Amino acid sequence: MVNVQPSRYRLRSLGVVSVLLAVLALVLAPGPSSAAEPHWWEPTARPAPDSQIDVTGEPFKGTDAQGRVRGFVDAHDHIMSNEGFGGRLICGKPFSEQGVADALKDCPEHYPDGTFAVFDMITKGGDGKHDPVGWPTFKDWPAHDSLTHQQNYYAWIERAWRGGQRVLVNDLVTNGVICSVYFFKDRGCDEMDAIRLEAKKTYEMQDFIDKQYGGPGKGWFRIVTNSAQAREVVEQGKLAVVLGVETSEPFGCKQILDVAQCGKDDIDRGLDELKKLGVSSMFLCHKFDNALCGVRYDSGALGTAINVGQFLSTGTYWKTEDCKGPQHDNPIGNAPAPEAEKRLPEGEEVPTYESGAQCNTRGLTDLGAYAVRGMMKRNMMLELDHMSVKAVGQSLDILESEAYPGVISSHSWMDLGWTERLYKLGGFAAQYMGGSQGFVGEAARTKDLREKYKVGYGYGTDMNGVGGWPAPRGKDAPNPVTYPFRSFDGGSVIDKQTTGERTWDFNTDGGAHYGMVPDWIQDIRNVGGEEVVKDLFTGAESYLRMWANTEKYAPGKNLATAGVGAWASSSEWWNPFESFQPGRAVDGDNSTRWASEWNDDQWLRIDLGSPQQVGRVTLDWEKAYGKSYRIELSTDRENWTTAWSTTAGDGGFDTARFDRTEARYVRIKGLERGTQWGYSLKEVGVYTG
Length: 689
Prior knowledge:
single chain, alpha/beta, TIM Barrel, Jelly Rolls, 9-stranded parallel β-sheet, 7-stranded antiparallel β-sheet, 29% helix, globular
C-alpha cells in the first residue's frame, strides 16, 4: 500500500468537518424543554371540528428572578356543574369523546324555543325563551346573563390558560334542595353521589386532554393534590387544577326543624372520603342553613326562591337579627319569585324581613366547629364565602386560636370587614368576576391590605355557578378591548374567540364563557391600569404559598392539658348529675366545662407543672362568658403580671397573644360577666406561641 502524507488542504478540510459535526451535535443534543419539545403547547390531535383557541405564542414557563411562580388564579369555578343538581340544570358538557357538537347542546326540555326553561324564568326573568341550538350557530348561548348553559368547554379553559392563568379551583358542586324541587332531572339528588361523579368526570377530562398530547401526563390540564405538585405544574407552564367542594348539605348534614341529621362520625367519614377523591378545599354551607352553619343570604327574587327551597327542605325559613358588629349578611329583600313560591303548601307564605335586620341568627354550630377542626386535622383549606357573618367570625376565632393559614374567600361572598383577619392568618382572597369598573374599584379598597401583608390577588369566575358575569361595556365605551392584544406576560397574542359560526367580542358580548377570561383581564387592564393586573399576576404564588403553609400546619402542644391540674375561686354545685369543677376546663374535652358562681370576681388558675415559655392562651367559652377579664402569669403563684386583657369580650372563642414569657401558672381573672350567670369555660389552651 502507498503511504500518503496529509496535505494542508486536507487538514483544513478535517478541521471544518469537525466544527460542523460539533455544531450538529449541539443542535441535536438535549436542551431546554421548549427546544426539545417544539410547540409543546399545541396538541398533536384535536377533535374535528372543534372550537378555536385564537391565541398564538408559547405559554410562559418557570419562575421569576426571585423563584416565584407567575400567573393568574381562578379560585372558584364549576367545570362539572352539569353533573350536579339532578343533571339538567346546566345544559351541555365541558368535553365529549364525540366532539363539540355532542358537548355543546341544550337540555331536551329547552327545545324547540326554550318555553320550558323553567330555571331561566326564575333567574333571568321573562319567559325563558331562547334559541336552543348550540354548535355551530350559538345564537343565544353561552351568554353573560344565561345561567343554564355550559360555559366551561375545555377549549375555552385552554384559551384562559394560554392567556396566563395557572391555577384553577374546580369546585365540585350540587345542591340537593334545588335538585329536589327542580322539575327536570335524570338522576337522584344525593349530594355525595354527585360529588363523586364530578370528581370522576374531572379526571376523565384530564385523560381526554392528555390523549390530544400523546398520552398520560402530557396535557396542559393537571389535577393536583398538594402544593408541591401544583408548583411543579405551574413551573412547567401548565394549568394546576385544584379540587374543591361547594354543596349545601355535606355528609348528609342537613337540619329538619333545627335538628341535625348527621353526627361527628358522618363528618369524619365524609372528610376522609373527600381527601381520597383528591379534594383540598371546601365550603361547609351553601345557600341553605344546615347542621354545620348558617348562610349569608341571597338577595332579590333568587333569594326568595332559595328561601322557599330552605323551607321545603328544612321546615324553617331564614331568620334575621340586628347585626352585632359592622359586618352584615346580604339583604334578603322581599322580591317575589312566583315560579318558586308555587311550590309552597297552600296557605304558606315566605316571611317579610325588616330592612335593618341583616344578620342570620344562625352561626357555626358545635358540629360545624367539629368540621372546621376536622379540616384542620386533614390540612384542608376552609372556604368562608356563603357562611353567615356570625359563622365566619366563629370560624376565624377557631383558626386564629391555632394560627391556621388555610382559609379562603374565593368569590366576594365574605364581608370585606373580615379581610384583614383572613390576611393576618396567611389566607387568600379572590374577587368575583364582575364588570371591569366595579372589579377595579373593589380591588382598590383592599389594595393597602395586600401591600401590608405582601399578597397577590385572585378572581373567582363562578362559571356554571348560576351567578351572572360581566355585561358588555359597549363598542363605543372608553378604553375598549382592541383585538388582537398581547397577554400581560407579553408572550401570547390573543385575538377574538371563535367557536363554530360565532365569534365573540368582549366589548359587545361581555363574559359569555370561560374563553373570555383573557379578554376580561385585558378590559381590567385598560380600565384600571397595570397595577391591579400585576396583583392578579402574583396570585398563583400567593395561593400556593398559603397552601404550602396549610400543609405544614401541626397543632401545638397544649401545655394546660399536659400540666398538673386547675383550681378556681368557685364552682357551680347545684347539678347533681354533672361536675363543673375547674379540671373540666383542661381535660381536652369541650363537651365538659368549668362554671363559676354567679358573681363578677372569679378566677381559674392552671398549673403547668414546671416553668414554660407561654405566648398564647385560647378560651372556649360556654354561653356564660367574660366581658372584661385578663390573663395573668406567675412563676411562684404569689406574684402575678398581666399579659393580656380585654373589656370587650363577646363569648365564643377568644385568643390572647402576647410576648413569650416564662411562667408556671396561668390565671384567667374575671372582672365583669357578659351574662347574668357566672363564667363558664369549656376548654382553655396554653401554648408557647
